[in-house]
Amino acid sequence: MNLRELAKHLNLSQTTVSRALNGYPEVKEATRLRVEAAARQFNYTPNMRARGLATGRAMCIGHVMPISKKHEMVNPVFGDFITGASEAYVEAGYDLLLTLVPDAEEAHHYRNMKAKGNVDGIIVHGPLMADRRIALLQEIGLPFVVHGRASDMPADYAWLDMNNRRAFDRATELLIELGHRRIGLVNGLEHMDFAHRRREGFLAALMRHGLEVNPAHLRAGEMTEALGYGAASDMLKQPDPPTAFLSSSMVTAMGIWRALGDRGLRLGRDVSLITHDDDLGYLKNGHDVPTFTATRAPVRDMGRRAAEMLLEMIRDPSCGPLQTLMEAELILGRSTGPAPRE
Amino acid sequence: MNLRELAKHLNLSQTTVSRALNGYPEVKEATRLRVEAAARQFNYTPNMRARGLATGRAMCIGHVMPISKKHEMVNPVFGDFITGASEAYVEAGYDLLLTLVPDAEEAHHYRNMKAKGNVDGIIVHGPLMADRRIALLQEIGLPFVVHGRASDMPADYAWLDMNNRRAFDRATELLIELGHRRIGLVNGLEHMDFAHRRREGFLAALMRHGLEVNPAHLRAGEMTEALGYGAASDMLKQPDPPTAFLSSSMVTAMGIWRALGDRGLRLGRDVSLITHDDDLGYLKNGHDVPTFTATRAPVRDMGRRAAEMLLEMIRDPSCGPLQTLMEAELILGRSTGPAPRE
DNA sequence: GACGGAATTGAAAGCGCTTTGGGTGCACGC
DNA sequence: GCGTGCACCCAAAGCGCTTTCAATTCCGTC
């Protein structure tokens, strides 16, 4: 059933039917009711492609995920983020188009997004420190919001980010207050912006307290369980092993934990551990009391907020690039305790 | 730049330009080259909405994920599955539309998919045992492939599934051969089809070997780390604790492992564990030697295959519903060993 | 040099919707 | 009786593309 048929069936023009369904005021209330009833009866839904052609709006948001060829890994955070975003889209009547781009920097993908005309705006995932996509998108003129930031780029674009720097600074500070002097950092890949900021926060806190940075206590890689296990195992073998760890993700933290187990070290007693926790649905940090002391950021909420920002920017293009910085909570779990006496 | 402008610039009709770009034979080679050069120069990409309107094909596949209100959790497998599917779409020039459906309003969402006309087919995720969506989609007449199956429905639809029953049967068999007599099953929610089949496989193997089923050794829930920890802790407290566990996911297995650690039980020595492993990018099962003995199914490949099936069905609607059953590998890791002497 | 068919190209219709720019009645005031 | 303003409705244009049908050109042939 399309508009023409519906109109014919009602003995009305397409114009009137269209207006009735889209809530225009110049149609008589009785007529509107008649139209709406018929639409319901025949299960009429406007064809979005046709509507899009006519209005110029696609009613669809694109999410662009870079999948690096080298590290073929889907960010586990993605599922939860997108769930949150999806809530906002459903409410606003938008669809979600997902594009996985093999190489973060393939310009033509982004250009095509605009030309193909099937999205009104996009959300950019996984920004690098110097992410050329931002300038590209500004040039293209498609509204966008970055999930995260790109430190090396001028900041006049829309983004939603967690305060990674501060979160890791605070976490480090907490460990230092507990008496830890040798702290290992197991970070994500540091050309990713979020990882870079976390490292900065970590180093800043160390420096503020006059602590040396031991390069052997810094490790970065894809945030897998294996990374945590490997990194912690290596560091613990060294002459001056860390008495505490900072980890960039829950799975990595579990790997670290396993490495402790191998050596008979007890978490929170012999060795302390703070991890970042994205509060993912399938990876809850304990039940009543959190297993890990953690910097927690509700990724799902962030997805929703980012989506709302983008929708707002589309609704009112004059509002300029919106920016949101969210603070992570520092939640106390059972993985931290005073540094052991030497 | 749109087709008309491009045509004008070339002093050609839209017809010819369109044909040149779409590889129709009736256009002179010299002209085609000229057109292609101009298209590249101006970065012309056809507007998909307009093309879709004209051709009736959306060049887009919908993925529908139910998000149950009760268990607000995104299936962690989803990211990898969709990455695989995406590969196939990119090659075929398709886009991917993601819809998260809160399962209450099911029916009208699927009906709208068809009416809105922005997808040519859909992939259905998370099938339940008696999933009404299948009959609905058949009635609607939109090509679809189910990731998994629905045991209680007639099987004349397209699906791609892992042989869950056989995988868990084999895994159980292995444990029995190792001398285990009391085996705990920590499963996913059993109204989900895959979990139901795994349970069946588990029970079949027990029965075949004349082993009693202890209801206290069966547990099902959302496959979180906490589930594994809680279930294992409970079972180990009982008078006749399991000497081996079967787990439906890696994170759950890690929870079980943690519960063992709490009690000073060593994995693979004191207690054995086999888990299902979806081979996710960020949750690798060990490095050289797998940590866990596991039934492994490459979810990403499955995504690709499912997508290819759907594209084939769209290309040739007469080919009927395709079906693919994949076998999981049973890979040996360090989490299994002979049952301890009593 | 005219002719038939193959090779190229174009004009125009149409996909299903929105929206512009008129109508057509009708009530009202003069 | 006539203009005015309002409330309501419609015909038709147009969004950017594909595709049908027809027109034109080109060539080898007789």
Describe the structure.
Chain A is an alpha/beta fold. The first copy, chain A, folds into three domains: 3-42, no CATH class; 60-162 and 300-326, Response regulator (Rossmann fold), CATH 3.40.50.2300; 164-298, 3-Layer(aba) Sandwich (Rossmann fold). Helix content of chain A is 42%, strand content 16%. The first copy, chain A, has helices at 3-10, 14-21, 29-41, 48-55, 77-92, 107-116, 132-140, 164-177, 193-208, 225-237, 250-262, 299-315, and strands at residues 60-66, 95-101, 121-124, 144-147, 159-162, 183-187, 218-220, 244-247, 272-277, 293-296, 323-326, 329-331. Chain A has a six-stranded parallel sheet with strand order 2-1-3-4-5-11, with helices on both faces. A six-stranded mixed sheet of chain A has the order 7-6-8-9-10-12, with helices on both faces. The interface between A and B is large, with 57 and 55 residues. Chain A binds a DNA duplex (30 and 30 nucleotides) through residues 2-4, 12-16, 18-19, 22, 26-28, 31, 46-56, 117. Chains A, B: It holds the Pfam family Peripla_BP_1.
Class of secondary structure makeup of chain A: alpha/beta
The total number of structural domains of chain A is 3
Output the CATH class name of the largest domain in chain A: Alpha Beta
Q: In angstroms, what is the radius of gyration of chain A?
A: 25 Å
GO molecular function, one term (chains A, B): DNA-binding transcription factor activity
Protein name (chains A, B): LacI family transcriptional regulator
Organism (chains A, B): Roseivivax isoporae LMG 25204
Keywords (chains A, B): DNA-binding, Transcription, Transcription regulation
